[in-house]
Amino acid sequence: MGFQDLAPRLDQDSFLAELVQSVERELQSTIADLCQQRPNSNAMYSARNCVEKALKAFLCFHNKLTAEQAKSQFGHRLDRLISEIGRLHPASGLRTLQGQLDAFAPYDGRYSGRVFSWLELWQAYRLAQFAAGEVIRSITGRNQRAAVEKRVGARRADA
Question: Of the residues 96, 117, 129, 142, which has the fewest C-beta atoms closer than 10 A?
Fold first, then answer.
């Protein structure tokens, strides 16, 4: 189940629906920027925005985070969002992002004109793709990755 399957199931006037749609838009924008003949450095900021919206969507779904709370408590601070997820949901896979947030350029640098390397851009995309996938799995309750990991773990135990 992906974005297209999830969107019709959400109240289209809700903050959660707005966040989920924004996650998809930012991820698509990241992809479009990366697929240009010369990858566009705007991909860094689209990927960062994707992660920010994904983290807020997670908190919105699981903890009823409101738009006002998202703005006043977290703003654009990925570190605060990850800390809150870690505090409230210590088993969440999103916690793995905590040590990787330095892959993103600071939010206030989005108009700096900085050029990012191919490696930096793809690292940011990888994190955005992961965050988006984790949030969709969390909202839908469909976590095929957990089933695969369980099976692999069982095979290792048998070996």
Answer: 117
DSSP state of 84: H
Write phi, then psi, for 89 (nearest 5 degrees): -140, 70
Q: Would you tell me which CATH number, out of the four given (3.40.50.11710, 1.10.510.10, 1.20.120.330, 3.30.300.30), belongs to the domain 3-158?
A: 1.20.120.330
DSSP string for residues in 122-146:
HHHHHHHHHHHHHHHHHHH---HHH
pTM: 0.86
Q: How remote is the C-alpha of 72 from its chain's centroid?
A: 20
- Tell me the chain's radius of gyration from C-alpha atoms: 16
Q: How large is the angle between the packed helices 118-140 and 15-34, nearest 10 degrees?
A: 150
User: pLDDT by residue (tens digit) across 9-59?
Assistant: 777 789 999 999 999 999 999 999 999 999 999 999 999 999 999 999 999
**Burial annotation 9-20 (CB, 10 A radius, 16+ → b, else e):** ebeeeebbbbbb
Q: What is the DSSP string of 21-63?
A: HHHHHHHHHHHHHHTSSS--THHHHHHHHHHHHHHHHHHHHHH
- d(C-alpha 46, C-alpha 31), whole Å: 9
